[in-house]
Description:
Elements: E1 4-6, E2 9-16, E3 72-78, E4 84-90, H1 108-111, E5 116-120, H2 125-129, H3 146-161, E6 167-177, H4 179-187, E7 199-203, E8 211-212, H5 213-230, H6 241-250, H7 253-270, E9 280-281, H8 290-296, E10 304-309, H9 327-334, H10 339-346, H11 355-378, E11 384-389, H12 394-398, H13 408-412, H14 419-424, H15 430-450, E12 465-469, E13 474-477, H16 481-488
Parallel strand pairs: 4-5, 4-6, 6-7, 7-10, 8-9, 10-11, 11-12
Antiparallel strand pairs: 1-2, 2-3, 3-5, 12-13
Helix pairs in contact: 5-7, 8-11
Amino acid sequence: MEGVVRRGLRMWRGIPYAAAPVGALRFRAPQPVVPWTAIRSAEHFGPVSPQDRNGQFAGPPTGVPMSEDCLTLNVIAPAEGTGLPVLFWIHGGAYSVGSSREIRQQGEALVRGGVLFVSLNYRLGALGYLDFTEFSTTARTFESNLGLRDQVAALRWVRDNIRAFGGNPANVTVIGESAGANAVTTLMAVPAARGLFAKAIAESSPPDAVYTRAWTSVWAREYVELLSEAVDNLSTDSTSLEDAGELLATASIDDLVAATSRMQLTTPDRHPGTIALCPVIDGDFLPERPLNAFMEGRAHPVPLIIGTNDREGTLFRGKRDILVTTPPRIRAVFAKTRKRARKAVKAQYPGLPARHPAADFGGDYAFWFPTVKVAERHSRFAPVYFYRFDAAPRLLKLAGFDATHGLEMFALFDLMDGAFGRALGLLGGRRAFKRAGERMRHHWVSFAQDGTLAEWPKYTARKRRTLIIDTVDRVEEDPRAERRKAWQEFVPHV
Length: 494
């Protein structure tokens, strides 16, 4: 396989890790890759999973190819070295957008620190994260958790092949952000993923965004109704197993993506506190809620770095607002809890439901407090290192975003020298932010190499020591303790 050498690094792109999930393989578990014998070029990225270029979240720009045939991965390695630790990056994007190529020079700064970086495409939207199993018939089978199964297939590819690229298959760290971090915390509860990774890093995971079939069945039927409306000459009453299965199997990619976008816009108000595109507890591939697996010690007992950003919810404004931030959504969530618990939590967000406190409430509901639960539960069975990312350029602070969702990627991937990064630093704080990124990369690389983290104490339910990544890093014991205690009695079980 022919890769390329750029900026002193070896790169291979667009490597298939499973067969193309097209035709009869649409909505089926990934199958083994079709082998090839001739020399194959690995210079270009593979097509990204089908997604909306101009939807609720920003998709790929015009010109970036999309295709159902998207199950490829990329490898970046130092110019020299063998037996290197592997960082296996799972991109975010609400399980509806994103790809392994969306961030320019992604992973290169980490590789220069002494690791090998793998990134992948996996199925998104309805193709990867809606559960249509109830529409299976003797003639046509639908399988669950397809995006999650893709990630396991890619991890198996790493286990079987990464040594040829200079990596150590026994020292793989899965790492992801947002939906990618949800993938990380979920993979820790997937039996088929056991032994495929030795460590994990979850940045801003919504770890409880995993649902039972009682929920996913509702969303499957809602989606089929939306899809049928998008297809000409098809009545919305066509909801028999055979009709639904035929519709899903034969619909065009454009219609599948359009129906996904419409569903994303309606779900936060129709079902407040939920996100329709997520893994399903199917009793087989994912046998239980990951938070329960963490509590009972059934999650894979690997060391874990986990944390969130200071103000996760401020990014989700306008059409991107999928969190519990509007008065009707907040009332719906409050209605599922006891009055005393509601009162205690509301006191932590003075002015709720005004925009500023609502953004923090919604971010804490989706990201921060479920992450605290993962950390305290998993810390009983394996080392856990908890962080909060507070660093933010002055422009973001003045705009009211502060250290919002996804910002830490600009630090981790050293992106502040690009046009957008320089714009963020126009009013000051750019150099301090870059230095915070340098320290963050040092921690992540050190953890990937041998699990050591100097001056970063482990997190436990008793001490709750947290690394605050800011202009000057510091360790705090149980930051926002009163808020945590209020949430402890509040969060409803969806």
